Amino acid sequence: MYAPERQQEILRLARDGGRVDVVSLAEEFQVTAETIRRDLKALDRAGLLRRVHGGAIPAGRLDFEPDLAERETTAADEKDRIAKAALAELPEEGTMILDAGTTVARLAGALPLEASLTVVTHSLPIAARLADHPGVQLHLIGGRVRHRTRAAVDAWALRAYGEIRADVVFLAANGFSAEHGLTTPDLAEAAVKRAALAAARRVVLLADSAKHGQEHFARFGGLDEVDLLITDSGLSPEDATAIERGGTEVLCV
Amino acid sequence: MYAPERQQEILRLARDGGRVDVVSLAEEFQVTAETIRRDLKALDRAGLLRRVHGGAIPAGRLDFEPDLAERETTAADEKDRIAKAALAELPEEGTMILDAGTTVARLAGALPLEASLTVVTHSLPIAARLADHPGVQLHLIGGRVRHRTRAAVDAWALRAYGEIRADVVFLAANGFSAEHGLTTPDLAEAAVKRAALAAARRVVLLADSAKHGQEHFARFGGLDEVDLLITDSGLSPEDATAIERGGTEVLCV
DNA sequence: CCCATGTATGCCCGTTCATGCCCACATCGA
DNA sequence: TCGATGTGGGCATGAACGGGCATACATGGG
Question: Which one of A30, A116, A144, B1 has the fewest beta carbons within 10 angstroms of its own beta carbon?
Fold first, then answer.
């Protein structure tokens, strides 16, 4: 049996049964657990399955985002502190743009109930979180929705951001450094981030220190375009001063 | 049972019952209270639940939820049957528009995992449901988000619908009748519905029979613009034939 | 026909994850 | 204010994971 056949069959089993587990599959197909894990990883990457510890669940069956909840465990405390610190940067009664990203999502979740703001976002999870916030006037940016990040991209999103002007944007990046600027793996997403960045008077970057020095495929701006960087104390003082020399205020929490 | 499955189930229980508590959940799932606490913390971090001492309540349930919870349970069986029947109207490999509404949301949740479709929607809950679906190319319609329905309205939404052409639209209405057509309480929402209606070659209306004869403030179309009405058997045969005389096919399930 | 290259799989082993247990501390209700 | 109950941190454990390497088989060009 060829690997693609096996994967096809695994997918069928997962959809039929609602779940699969590594050891039973290994037994079933007479291969080792490693091979099954490789299969599941491939199917997960293809977006067809959701990998969980011990097995997998067909994509589309859970209406919450395990990958988001999972990534939440990575540097969760730092992200929380960063989000808390970002609350101080909220405009009073103004307009802000929220980029897609787990740290920014935390900020959205931490918005005080008595806040009165206009929020613009192209992130589906963030919009869902703010849709019932009594003080938030929410504006959703449309577009094609990327499965992995659940964020809207492409023409509609770019045009919409081109038509607005906000007081502040809270931006996320997968990598940042003084030399290579702000980067993210996906080109389409980078384009939207660039548009969001250009639509705000003030740019606040929320990124934990593990992102520093990382470079990804698509660059959407330079650190000099960022007015304030909020990160955690994992950023070395030398790096911080180097960034501040570029005109970006740095806040380590 | 995997942790994400358990969390999904906890979320469902919380939404159904309005609240959950640690000890009952621990008993229910045959795990210790610590594990449940960890689950609740994860769901809290993901913004789906709000942790309280001894348990948790669904997020954002405080102001608008009773309304939605009630609507969810009202005529749940009928809505499910209607949604199931609507599955037969899906285009093959085509494009469809999903209007905002609980019945349409059920249709979205019932889409087979192996379906391959392009879906356009201005409803946040429906988008959230489909964002994870492997076979769905999702396009989100932007705009101002109404708190009550969590649907995008206003200029951006109208323009976006004006730019597309879909095979079919699955429409919802708060009231319908041969005399007064399709109505809904909100003007802005009616405008979007009208735009969605105009953007599709075929119009399918999903509405349980309790909606028949009801009239609301804003009218967004006539029953003659509807190609197919799917409703439940609560619609009297006379009413059904009256509607069919207007050129609308009627399916009672 | 041969050998270089690539791919699928298996095996080993240090690392991570989910869960349970324990205990000091916080919170709630009377 | 006090006892009961819930909470979160630390630690232990067994299962699952994944990177690195070896093997075997297929592929493809000379």
Answer: A30
* Phi, psi (degrees; rounded to nearest 5) at B233: -75, 0
Q: What local confidence, expressed as pLDDT, does residue A167 receive? A: 97
Residue range B234-238: mean pLDDT, rounded: 94
Whether residue B69 has pLDDT greater than 60 = no
Domains of chain A: 3-63 (1.10.10.10), 71-252 (3.40.50.1360)
Q: What is the pLDDT of residue A110?
A: 85
- CA dihedral (A181, A182, A184, A186) positive or negative: negative
**Which residues of chain A have a CB within 8 Å of the CB of B11?**
63-64
Residue B60 burial by Cβ neighbours in a 10 Å radius (0-12, 13-18, 19+): buried
CB contact under 8 A, B144 and A125: no
CB A54 within 7 Å, strand D: yes
Cβ pair A105:B47 closer than 8 A: yes
Q: In this complex, do B5 and A52 lie within 8 Å of one another by their Cβ atoms?
A: yes
According to the model, what pLDDT value does residue A232 have?
87
Q: For the residues of A13-69, what is the DSSP string, one character each?
A: HHHHHS-EEHHHHHHHHTS-HHHHHHHHHHHHHTTSEEEETTEEEETTS-SS-HHHH
Alpha helices, DSSP H, located in chain A = 3-17, 22-29, 33-45, 66-72, 76-87, 102-110, 124-130, 155-162, 187-198, 237-245
Residues 50-79 of chain B sitting with CB below 7 angstroms of strand C: 53
pLDDT at residue B70 above 70? no
Q: Residue A138: its chain B contacts at CB < 8 A?
A: 144-145
CA of B234 to nearest chain A CA: how many angstroms apart?
A: 31
When mean pLDDT is compared across A67-76, A110-119, B134-143, B219-228, the lowest value belongs to: A67-76
Query: Phi and psi (nearest 5°) for B95?
Result: -125, 135
Task: Please give the structure tokens belonging to residue A216.
Answer: 């990804």
Distance CA B105, CA A113 (A): 28
Name every chain A residue with its beta carbon within 8 A of the beta carbon of B129: 63
CB contact under 8 A, B144 and A124: no
Q: How far apart are CA B127 and CA B150, in angstroms?
A: 11
CA distance B212 to A122: 37
Cβ of A23 near strand D (under 7 Å)? The reply is yes
pLDDT band for B63, please (50, 70, 90 cuts). very low
Evaluate if the CB of A5 falls below 7 Å from strand C: no
Residues on chain B touching A127 (C-beta within 8 angstroms):
124, 145
The answer to whether A54 and A205 are in contact (CB under 8 A) is no
CB proximity B42 to A under 8 Å: yes
pLDDT, mean of residues A148-157: 95
